[in-house]
Amino acid sequence: MSQYSLADLAHLADVTPRTVRFYIATGLLRSPEGAGPKARYDDGHLSRLRLIKRLQKDHLPLAEIRARLSAVSDEDAALLVSEQPEPHGTAADYISALLQERGVARRSRQRPLRTPAQERWNVPLPGSWPSVPPVGPLPPAPGPSPDRSQWERIALSPDIELHIRRPLGRDQNRRVDRLVTIARQLLEEDPS
């Protein structure tokens, strides 16, 4: 069994040392033998890091990855990593699949050119969001656990942003999607 320093492990797994420390702190990886500069990592750490990266390519959140890895031994992780991964499509393919899964039809018209401001602020083009009927008020979100939450910033226009703490439940994600759609439609309306 090979022994690695933190720098060597991070290099072999193509992650940063900070990422390794974060995964240990959040329970995705077990602690190394020793501490500080004398800490040593083994092949099990390397296999798990590579497996985490593969699962992230499948767009799984870290909480789900942690749950899956809790039932996997180091030997099983090595076997899973050695298997040939399924080819992944592009991000656009993934988004299209999600939209189809949610029943949102893809529009087949040609998209107009984006202005530099729209590019810089990542503002959607008019008509690029599906129309969704308004919903009632959103219920208060239960507080996510601090070890797996992060903030997402959604640009509604060059001057307006919506900040959302992720992850959310499936129902809340659907409602946030509707909220963003409605907000963007309101902001696109001519105020005359």
Describe this structure in words.
- By secondary structure, this protein is mainly alpha-helical.
- About 45% of the residues lie in helices and about 10% in strands.
- It has helices spanning about 5-15, 15-25, 45-55, 60-70, 75-80, 90-100, 115-120, 170-190, and strands at about 5, 40, 150-155, 160-165.
- A hairpin with a 2-residue loop joins strand 3 (about 150-155) and strand 4.
- Helix 1 (about 5-15) packs parallel to helix 3 (about 45-55) and helix 3 crosses helix 5.
Q: Can you tag this structure with a few keywords?
A:
single chain; 192 residues; mainly alpha; Multidrug-efflux Transporter Regulator, Chain: A, Domain 2; two-stranded antiparallel ribbon; two-stranded antiparallel sheet; 44% helix; 10% strand; elongated
CATH class of the largest domain: Mainly Alpha
What would you report as the Rg, rounded to the nearest angstrom? 21 Å
Strand content: 5-15%
The biggest beta sheet, please? Answer: 2 strands, antiparallel
Terminal Cα separation, in Å? 72 Å
Number of domains: 2
